[in-house]
Amino acid sequence: MDVVRKSEALLRQATRRPIREVRRLALDLKRLWRVWVKADTAHYNKIFIAGCARSGTTLTQHLMGCFEDTFVHRAEAKYVQLDLLDRPESNLVVKRPERNHAHLARLPAAIGLIYCVRHPFDVLTSSHPQTRAERRFHTTPQRWVLEYDALLRLRKAQPNRVIVYVRYEDMIARPDEIQERIARAFKLKPSIHFSEDIANPIRATSLRKWERNEEFRTYLHTLPPTFLARLKEFCDEFGYDMTADTLNAGMAR
User: Which residues, other chains included, contact 222 with Cβ-Cβ below 8 Å and sequence gap of 6+?
Assistant: First the structure.
């Protein structure tokens, strides 16, 4: 049988290769098994990371590499990328692209979803190297509304979908608890704790900067009342406080 001959050849190679290559050969065997032996039933565990810009999607994406047998696609991509990946790992992870809000409601039910959220005041007063020359803050109110509306459309279209929400603040404060929750949701096995990943240090300095920065607070006071009402809706759902004087400043205009 062709599959048997190919598998035996790989095993013979493994006995002659350095230890550092044994894992790669084992993954090659897994790929053979998936493609030739179990092609009719084998499947990937596909995970899509979404959320508004500056809400911790990149940090979450990088930390997903702390799970065993997991491939994390480094470039941002639409969820269809999950169907195009040919990988030996069983778990595939892709992070949403910039205009994901236009497609989120059509996310296939077979794809798991991690949705990152963060206090809107931090999101709206966060800068980004790619847009710093164009505008002071990366996420505009218009972009924030588009992202939130996309989430609402998804939930309306798929009311039974299980969404793993990851609050940025919880990831910073209790990263290993968040890792455990993600592991349970997708049946993943950690290789190292999130808190031990030296390549992706978790820092608390980015939390609630608007409370300490007069420029940020001034900007937040300029937000229109209708937009502040949308923020409050979001904050009420995800357990965020909206400072009374900031909210009232917008409502008073």
Answer: 250
